[in-house]
Design goal:
Number of helices: 20
Strand order of the largest sheet: 3-2-1-6-5-4
Number of domains: 2
Structural class: alpha+beta
Distance between the termini: 72 Å
Radius of gyration: 57 Å
CATH superfamily of the largest domain: PAS domain
CATH architecture of the largest domain: 2-Layer Sandwich
CATH class of the largest domain: Alpha Beta
């Protein structure tokens, strides 16, 4: 792990990743704080707006009911119908106005407050009115009492108030019907507080509760369940005192049905006078859930952005470091002696220029190295005119065999070196022994055959040693049934060089033996295939011999004096 952290890629990615993580965390925190603060501000504004809409809605409802009541009061013939207690006539005169205004309750009273007609809207879609049942006594209601008490003194005066009826709490607006001789009757237009609360909830998007002057809950849009739920909604203490004082907005937090709500209280004004309280409430779970949701959304958004940035950074770092790693790998291979290594980087930037310089340097090193090896090989065989050019030809033939086998560049380069150095051990043998035309004594022959071991003892003989040792020693079972090369690189090089060495030795004149033709030499190699030579390599050699002979004839450096024998002498 320590080595990985010290690599160039990690030196680029780690600071970049840490910076992205810090910025992502800071951005998530700041954005969440801004969003949460904005949600809180929106929550407060909506709560205040709901309170204002409630107060304004009651004022509008009074105005609407007063307008409808006046329209009915000024209907021609209504005062006479009331004086005559003609319920049918009253119904005919008031039905159209009530239907057009969609009023919820309509009651027509005589001058004493007794009911002449009372209807309520049962079907809002079909605008169907039915008679209002109940044992209520309208004469006992405060708005009616005030009108009857005033009589005809203030003919245009109206009164409104919240009345307790057998059907619940109703906001009534009362208007007098004036005849020539005085008060003829009273028109009551009303709307239940439950209906008003539901309408306001839909428009204000908040739960509403209406209270009496003592803080008792009259109606509420909370699903609390009957009188017990209304009792739980009762308000008192500072909230009640603050709301009744009409000094600003009173706010408190309460739990309803297991959920937290923020309440804003205000004074309920009817007919210009305080008639009770109202409250608008919003669930605080909304803001907390919204804040939590926003926090997760921001976290996911920044995480996705962070991953995208990290991915781009990883791609950029890989784009930068991959060529550098290839340069390092190539330099290490060259340092290990593989002069066939190349970077294969063709970019036009600084890394591409560095790669080009490294390739040129390696080309020069390889050329100088091979030139030195060729000079060494030439020096080894220079004292023997019969083997002049032998090492060079073996190296070139080994390369051609490697190309036909589609071996990699490194193996082909080592084949050339192996061909040049396979006889380097002869440098330790006396020239008189190597060029002697007479029969060589057994003791001297054994010494000559030690030249592979002499080559192995030379400094940096990693390639020539295995090659020469393989060629000099008998090899058994060197091919499988398919004849394919399946060994490691050193074995492949040694076996290819062995075949190339023996073929070249058989096709040039040496003391005591004339050269063989290509076909004759191939026949000898095939007789040794599977015993001392690799069968598959010999088969490949048979395929490239025509091409090799053309190359040797065309290149003077590969030619050697030779005198071909006739087939008859070979058979002999």
């Amino acid at each position: 792990m320590r080595l990985q952290l010290r690599s160039l890629r990690w030196k680029i990615i780690l600071p970049y990743s840490l910076l992205v993580l810090v910025l992502a965390g800071l951005g998530t925190y700041l954005t969440t704080q801004l969003v949460t603060g904005s949600l809180g501000e929106r929550f407060d504004n909506q709560l205040v707006q709901a309170s204002r809409m409630t107060a304004d809605a009651f004022a509008r409802k009074e105005d609407e009911q007063l307008t409808t009541a006046r329209a009915i009061v000024y209907t021609q013939g209504l005062a006479a119908a009331i004086r005559a207690h003609d319920a049918g006539r009253i119904a005919a005169l008031t039905e159209g106005v009530a239907t057009n205004a969609r009023i919820e309750r309509l009651e027509i009273l005589d001058e004493g407050g007794s009911r002449l007609r009372a209807v309520e809207l049962k079907d809002r879609t079909g605008l169907i009115y039915t008679d209002l049942a109940g044992s209520d006594v309208p004469a006992a209601w405060e708005p009616v009492q005030r009108l009857i008490a005033a009589g005809a003194v203030n003919g245009g005066e109206k009164h409104a108030g919240i009345v307790t009826t057998s059907g619940g709490f109703v906001l009534y607006t009362a208007a007098p019907v004036i005849a020539q001789d005085g008060l003829a009757g009273v028109v009551l237009v009303g709307t239940s507080l439950a209906s008003i609360a539901e309408e306001l909830k839909a428009s204000a998007l908040a739960d509403l509760t209406l209270y009496g002057s003592d803080g008792t809950a009259l109606v509420s849009t909370f699903v609390a369940g009957g009188d017990r739920g209304l009792r739980e909604m009762q308000v008192g203490g500072d909230a009640l005192t603050g709301a009744l004082s009409r000094q600003g907005v009173t706010r408190e937090h309460r739990d309803v049905a297991g959920r937290g709500y923020d309440f804003v209280y205000g004074t309920l004004v009817v007919d210009g006078e305080p008639a009770g309280l109202y409250s608008a409430a919003l669930s605080t779970d909304f803001i907390f859930s919204a804040a939590g949701s926003s926090r997760w959304q921001m976290a996911l958004l920044f995480s996705a952005g962070m991953l995208a940035v990290l991915l781009v950074g990883w791609v950029l770092s890989r784009t930068i470091t991959q060529p550098v790693l290839r340069l390092v790998d190539t330099a290490e291979r060259v340092a290990d002696g593989d002069f066939s290594a190349r970077t294969d980087i063709g970019t036009g930037d600084e890394i591409g220029r560095l790669a080009s310089c490294l390739n040129k340097m390696t080309d020069k090193l390889q050329g100088q190295y091979l030139a030195t090896l060729r000079a060494l090989a030439s020096a080894v065989v220079a004292s023997n005119p019969h083997t002049l050019g032998h090492s060079l030809r073996v190296g070139r033939l080994a390369i051609m065999l490697g190309e036909s086998m589609e071996l990699d560049d490194k193996t082909q380069a080592q084949l050339e070196i192996g061909g040049y150095l396979h006889d380097v051990g002869k440098i330790g043998i006396r020239d008189s022994s190597l060029v002697k035309r007479a029969a060589v004594p057994q003791a001297e022959r054994e010494f000559i055959e030690e030249h592979p071991h002499i080559g192995l003892a030379l400094p940096d003989a990693r390639i020539s040693g295995p090659v020469t040792e393989f060629v000099s020693r008998p090899q058994r079972a060197v091919s499988d049934d398919t004849g394919l090369l399946s060994e490691n690189r050193e074995q492949i090089i040694a076996r290819i060089v062995a075949v190339a060495d023996l073929y070249d030795a058989l096709t040039v004149d040496i003391p005591g033996r004339k050269c063989l033709s290509s076909d004759e030499a191939l026949a000898v190699l095939q007789s040794y295939a599977g015993k001392y030579l690799h069968f598959g390599t010999v088969e490949r050699l048979s395929a490239i011999i025509p091409e090799w002979e053309r190359c040797r004839e065309a290149d003077s450096g590969l030619q050697a004096p030779r005198k071909r024998r006739s087939p008859e002498r070979v058979s002999a």
